[in-house]
Amino acid sequence: MSTPTTPADARSLADAMAARRGRRYPAHAYLAEHFPDYVEMLLHMDYVVRQKPRLFDERMHELFHIVALAVEMSNPVNQPHLRQHLKKGLRLGLKPEEIAEALMVCVNPCGTKVLTYGVTCMLEAMEEIRQEDAASGKGDAAG
Fold first, then answer.
1. Burial class (CB in 10 A: 0-12, 13-18, 19+), 26
2. Nearest to 20 by CA among 58, 53, 57, 73
3. Between the N and C ends of the chain, which has fewer C-beta atoms within 10 Å?
4. Which domains does the chain have, with CATH numbers?
5. Which residue, 41, 44, 23, is CA-closest to 31?
6. What is the pLDDT of residues 24-56, one digit of tens each?
7. What is the structure's pLDDT at 124?
8. Cα separation values, 69 from 64, 82, 106, 110, 122, Å
9. E strands, the chain, where?
10. Cα–Cα distance, 91 to 130 (Å, whole number)
């Protein structure tokens, strides 16, 4: 086990994770406190994979996240994580039809549960965006 870091260092690492993920996950705060070297490695990997110029833009990276999470984690515990990526993708300009089509491609190798689960989470994410935008006075960004 790694040596626990100071509360300020752990908070800094957890803040960096939250900024990159768009949401604060309690698991990240725990990992930052107890395994700071691991969180530093995750932050570096995130930089290498998602922040450096690559072939795919951030919008496509979110689509890949959405498909992977819908395929791998179709269970209620992970719905908030998938919805967070769906919201980010929608806010980056992914169209609901693009997301649905990407999920449809997964039906043959992975089954219809991926499509049903993914689209259900997408509709929930779109409703969350509408509610958030209404509360902040913004227009409808979810399509």
1. exposed
2. 58
3. N
4. 7-51 (no CATH), 58-136 (1.20.1290)
5. 41
6. 778 888 888 889 898 888 888 878 877 778 889
7. 95
8. 8, 6, 12, 12, 12
9. none
10. 11
Distance of CA 26 to the CA centre of its chain: 15
Contact assessment for residue 100 and residue 88, using Cβ atoms and an 8 Å cutoff: no
Cβ-contact 88, 44 below 8 angstroms = no
Q: What are phi and psi of 134, to 5 degrees?
A: -65, -40
Question: In this predicted structure, what is the pLDDT of residue 90?
Answer: 97
Which residue is listed with tokens 């290498």? Answer: 48
What lies within 8 Å, CB to CB, of 69 at 6+ separation is 78, 81, 82, 85
Q: Which class for 95: exposed (0-12), middle (13-18), buried (19 or more C-beta within 10 A)?
A: exposed
The pTM (predicted TM-score) of the whole model is 0.71
Q: At what angle do helices 112-136 and 96-105 cross, to 10 degrees?
A: 160
Retrieve residue 135's tokens.
């509360």
Q: What percent of the chain has a predicted confidence (pLDDT) above 90? A: 41
Q: How many CA atoms lie within 13 A of 59 on its CB side?
A: 9
